[in-house]
Amino acid sequence: MAKVYVTCRVFPEELERLRAAGHTVEMRDAPGLILREKLLEKVSEAEALICLLSDRIDAEVIEKAGKLRIIANLAVGYENIDLAAAQAAGIVVTNTPGVLTETTADLTFALLLAAARRIVEADAFARSGAFYGWELLQPHLGLEVHGKALGIVGMGRIGTAVARRGRLGFGMDVLYHDPHRNKPAEAELQAKYVSFEALLEKSDFVSIHTSLTRETRHLFDRQAFLRMKKTAILINVARGPVVDEKALVWALETGQIAGAGIDVYEEEPKVNPGLLKLQEHVVLVPHIGSATSKTRRAMARIAVDNVLAVLAGEAPLNPV
Ligand code: DGY
What we know:
Helix content: 25-40%
Number of helices: 13
Bound molecules: (2R)-2,3-dihydroxypropanoic acid
Largest sheet: 7 strands, parallel
Radius of gyration: 22 Å
Number of strands: 12
Distance between the termini: 25 Å
Oligomer: single chain
Shape: elongated
């Protein structure tokens, strides 16, 4: 029977499944992130670790984790884990693919609509008591969404789900850029494969759905913003460092682009102070792409299923 350490609060019924299988489970029952020293201490005893994207599982952690057999990341992304170090130590790493695709695509569209139609600003206005009646030139005139060009950077599962919403729900023309052609999306959604530069130049909405790699870090820099339409809106629900935040603040402040809907940040949990000052067509949320009860529950279930499998000597269900 094994010791499982969980770095964050997880639905109790999921952890019960581990206990029912005879394992000892210790869950860090506190809000916020685990302190580094605590992680290093706890990991030295654990045979299974359930952790967050925000927990840095680097070579130092892995070196301390002499008994560890599995790291079950509560996310589809896993750039927080030193995969090479884990592999060298014979530790399985798993993620939670599939279950958060539609939920994240929903949030992408929520941000897109909110930034284009200035929902957050209008909400604050209505609550402030400043609404004095309908008039033609209202203070919150926004940008059209239907029928516009939607540029998707990274046409994987989530990118395709966003493209589907744009095409089928809002009659948008879908352009995409990705290292690989997505022929099914081209057939289903009349999505057009274009170069990154063409996508920036032609899109009214640019939505980022690529993973964070050496190639995609700061893909959106000043040069990229200079290519975008002045009326364009950038949406990022993927990974903060894909965007050079300083360049984004510059682009928004100077009117190089019209707005942004941002869920992820370059140095989470810090939010760039320059972004905080901007309101018009700018919507900021705290990394909530997958944050519905149903989806977060499904993510926990997958992590536990993987831990159960590996501790039972079986193959993991979602190895990365
Ligand atoms: C992931 O799973 O990678 C997300 O960013 C967390 O919702």
